[in-house]
Amino acid sequence: MLRCHTLPQCRLLAQPGAGAGVLRRRVAPGGTARWGAAPRVSGVEASSPSRAAVEGGERPSMAERLRLGSLLEDGLSYKESFIVRCYEVGINKTATVETIANLLQEVGCNHAQSVGFSTDGFATTTTMRELGLIWVTNRMHIEIYKYPAWGDVVEIETWCQEDGRIGTRRDWILKDLANGEVIGRATSKWVMMNQNTRRLQRVSDEVRDEVFVHCPKAPRLAFPEENNGSLKKIPIRTDPAEHSRLGLVPRRADLDMNQHVNNVTYIGWVLESIPQDIIDSHELQTITLDYRRECQHDDIVDSLTYIEEGEERCTNGSAFAAPHPEEQRQFLHCLRFAGNGHEINRGRTVWRKLAR
Amino acid sequence: MAGSVAASAFFPGPGSSPAALARISKNTTGELPENLSVRGIVAKPNQPPAAMQVKAQAQALPKVNGTKVNLKTTSPDKEDTVPYSSPKTFYNQLPDWSMLLAAVTTIFLAAEKQWTLLDWKPKRPDMLADTFGFGRIIQDGLVFRQNFLIRSYEIGADRTASIETLMNHLQETALNHVKTAGLLGDGFGATPEMSKRDLIWVVSKIQLLVERYPSWGDMVQVDTWVAAAGKNGMRRDWHVRDYNSGQTILRATSVWVMMNKNTRRLSKMPDEVRAEIGPYFNGRSAITEEQGEKLAKPGTKFDGAATTQFTRKGLTPKWSDLDVNQHVNNVKYIGWILESAPISILEKHELASMTLDYRKECGRDSVLQSLTTVSGECVDGNTESAIQCDHLLQLESGADIVKAHTEWRPKRAQGEGNMGFFPAESA
C-alpha cells in the first residue's frame, strides 16, 4: 500500500483555513463533510477553537477535532500522533516493525490528503491523472532505536522533497510523545511511472510545479549524516542462502486497492526467513528494501536470507570482511517468485541484541 | 492466541462518578449557571491547575508494566472526592432543595454527555486522557467505552474496514477494560488471582452481527461489558456504533473459559477470581437469545441443495501473527477462514454475521488449510440473495482449529461512502 497511498509530494489547494493547521478530512468539493450530521452535544461545539477555521458554517465533528494530525505552521511538513494498540504488538511486547511501517504509511497518506491530493488511494495530482502517471516506491529504509509498547503514543513528522530528476523522497521522524525522544527515522524513494506502459517517467516541469510547491526548498534529510545506511547499495548474492522460507502465499488482507501485494507485507516476508534464534535474541534495528517487481494474489514467494559480514577498513584503505560485534547481526535478503526465480525485492536488515 | 483476549470486570460505581464530576468541573467551567458555582456544588472553576493535571495524568498514560497505576481506581484521589464533600457543606448553608436538585440533575445530564467528549485541548503532552483513545469506564463502572479512528491500512479492497479491523478493536477494548479496572495481571487479560494460579482465559465461541462497515476516517465507538457464562465461564459483549450518527455498526458476544496455561486443561473458576470479577457482571446482552438462535451453528449441513467446497492450503503463521506467548492471535483465524471463500462472494457481498467455534490453538510451526462450503444455489454469483457458508480451519495434519458459519448479504450501493474519492480512471 505504500506504493499507492503515500504521496511524497505536497500541493496546497486554495483551502481557507488550511493555514491554521486544522485538518479537515475528506470534505468533498460540494462542501458537505461526511460527518456533517450534527454532533450529539451542540453546546460544546460553540467553544471549539477550530470552529472559526471551518468554512461555510460547518461545525467540525468530534472526529475532526480529535484528528490529531496537522500541517506544521510553515506548511512544509505534517505531524500526527498514534497510540499503539494491543494487536499491533508482537512477541517482544513491543510494536512490530510492520506496525511502524503501517503508521508511516498512514501519516504519509494523511499528509497527502491534507494538502489536497486525491483520496482514491493513488494520491495523484490533476496533471498526473491526465497523463496516467502514478507513484511507485523504489526503496524504503527504516531505523528503529526504541520500539514503543502497547499504550505508548508515537508522534510522527513527515515531509517530502525532490530527489534528482526522476524521483522524490519522503522522510519521517518518529518520537515518543511522552518524552520527545527520537525513537526512529525513515526515508523512502519514489519514482513516477506510467500506469499503462509501466515505464518510468521523468518528473516534468508541469508536474513539478504542482507537486513540489509545498516541500522544503532547502534539503531536509531524516538521515543527514554521510554514508548512512539509507544510501548503501544492496548487492545481489549468488551463493546459496543460509536460511530460507519457501512457498509464502499472499493473503487477501495483503492486497492493496489495485490488487497488488502492499509494501508492508514484503517486510513480513523478509522476516520470515530469519532463524528463530535471532528472533528470540535480537531486535530489528534497521531494514532497507529495494522494490523491483510487483506481486499479486496468485503468486508464490520464496524468502531467502544471507549472512552479511561487516566491512572493516584496514590502515592501507582496503576493505576486508570481518564479523560484526557480538551485539549486532546483519543479513541480506531476497524475495523472489517461486516459479521463475525473478527478484521481487532485495533487502538488508541489521539486528541488535535484546537486553534480556 | 486462544486465550489472548480476556475481559474481567471493573471497579464499581464510586470510582467513576467522582471522576466524571471532576471532569465536569474542568470542562464546563464556563458553562454552568452562575449560581451553581457560587453554591460550590461543583468544585471551584478555578481549581488549582496542579489538581487538574494530576487528575488527567491519572488517566493519561497507563503503562502496561504498571509504572503508572490508574490512580482513579486504586488510590484515594482528593480531587475526586471534592465534589462529594461540597454538598455536605452546602446542606448546612443553603436550604433551597429544589435548586440543589435541579443543579445536580443538570450536572449529571451534562456529565452523561460529557463523558465521551474530549472538548478540552491538552495543555501539556502528557495530559492525553482519551484524546488518543484510551477509553474510559462509564455507567456505574459496568461498561467500558473507547473510540477508534479507522486508519488507511485497516480498510480492505472495497474501502471499508475489514472484519479483522473490527475484531481487532474488540480485542483492544477488552484489554483496555481490564487494564483500566486495575485488574490486569500477567499476560493478556488474566487477573492477578488467575496469574497466581497460572490460569488464562481461552475463547470458546464468538458471534458477530454486522449492520454496516465503517470507512477510512470514520470514528467508531465501542462499548464492552462482561457477564457470567455458566458457573465457570465468562461472557464478554460488545456494541460498536458510528460515533457521529450513533448507528450500530456491529454487535458481538463471546464466551470464555479458564484454562491452566501449563497443563492446557480447562479449570473451574476459583472463588478468589470470582470475587475479583463477579461484582462487575452486567446482565445486558448485545445479541439477544432469539437473534442468537437464528444464527446457524458452525458445522450445520445445508439440507437439500448441492454444495460446493473451496479449499486454500499452505497457510502458515507469520511472526506478526503471534502474540507474546507465540500463539496465533484469535483475529488472524478469521482472515484464514475467509481465504477460501470464493472471490465472487467477497466482491458482491458483505459479511452479515459470523459464528466462530474455537477448538484448538496453533502456533508458529502449524500449517493450516481453510475449507469453505457454500450452499448450492448461491455459487453462481447471484447478487440478489443472501448467502450462507460453512467453514473449517484445520491443521493439514487433521485437527480442527476453528469451525465457523457465515451469512452474507448483497453489498449496499456505495452512496455517501464515496464522497471525496476520485478514482484515477475517472479523473
**Helicity range of chain B:** 25-40%
What is the arithmetic mean of pLDDT of chain B?
71
SS strand fraction of chain B: 15-25%
CATH topology tier name of the largest domain in chain A: Thiol Ester Dehydrase, Chain A
Head-to-tail CA distance between termini of chain A: 34 Å
Which chains share the greatest interface?
A: A-B, 79 and 69 residues
Oligomer: heterodimer
In short:
With 356 residues, chain A is α+β, with helices and mostly antiparallel strands. Chain A has eight helices and 14 strands.
Written description of the protein model:
The complex is a heterodimer of chains A (356) and B (427). Chain A has 8 helices and 14 strands. Chain A is an alpha+beta fold and 356 residues long. In chain A, a hairpin with a 5-residue loop joins strand 13 (328-337) and strand 14. Chain A is globular and about 50 Å long. The two termini of chain A are 34 Å apart. The longest helix of chain B has 18 residues, at 97-114. Chain B has 427 residues and is an alpha+beta fold. In chain B, helix 1 (17-27) crosses helix 5 (78-93). In chain B, strands 1, 2, 3, 4, 5, 6, 7, 8, 9, 10, 11 and 12 form a 12-stranded antiparallel beta sheet that branches.
